[in-house]
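Hey L., structure's done. Input below.
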Amino acid sequence: MDNFKILLKEMCEKTNLYCKLTNNKGDAIFNNLKVDSKTIIKKIRINNIIYRLYITEENENLKDFIEFTLNKFMEKSNTIQLLLQGEKSWNNFKNTILEKRGKLFIIDCNNKEEVFKILRNSYADEDVLIEEVFNQIILIGDLDEEKEHGLSLRESIIQNTGEKVYISVSNLDGTYNGLLKGYRKAKQAIDTGKALKIVPETYISSEMEIENIIHNLKNEYSKQLKDEYEEICKSLNNELILTIEEILRCNFSLTQASKNLYIHRNTLIYRVEKIKKETGYDIRNFKEATYLYVLYINSKRID
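Output:
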């Protein structure tokens, strides 16, 4: 609902308008009313959700205008894009959610109109900002458990739209430079995840550094690595290839990999020894495992 705060703040400053907007529970979304103001309460509908508008008697005739403006703003709000492009001042966002520490989610999907509805209904009573930025949707808010939140959000969108969706998450520190950095990192994470076909399609920017490096390798070197990985796979049967890839997906956790492969841990260790014998790489060695991970992820890169 921070979208409303930003617009109403600008509107009130430029027109000397005084009002208060709350949700149906009475939680204030925006309020610049003077303490002794005499107000009347009007119900307004924004994006099919009912809100209460407290407005002074002399401004009662502005109710329809405010309702119309907020709905239009929700349809095509691009204040964050203008801010990222340097075309809007950071001062316009004083005392908004952008000045707080939080998370920035980028949602990449085709059916943006439907996804907007899902997000606005899901976060109707939360202090979040939802906008379209450079043909993608961003969600900004103080949202906990970023990985779980992203996975849950992605699942909800898929269930409601039936379409593929990619989500990335980064941290915000409440500053303008932090917003620029957070957006850049989230954008880089989603671009890398899509290019390398990483699943599940929910990417935490702080966990994507190696993948970002791989994504930005020169094509010639990338091809060399692909050829090397192909040679390694030639010396292994399908069972051992699946074993390598599952261990890598599990961040080298043999316990988790054995569970995912439905085999005993001792069986997995036997396979690891066999992989070492056939390829010369010991996946239990950090450097060798990291190099194998680079080869594996690079093999999925689309040049």
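Residues 197 and 300 are 6 Å apart (CA to CA). The mean pLDDT is 87.

-- N.
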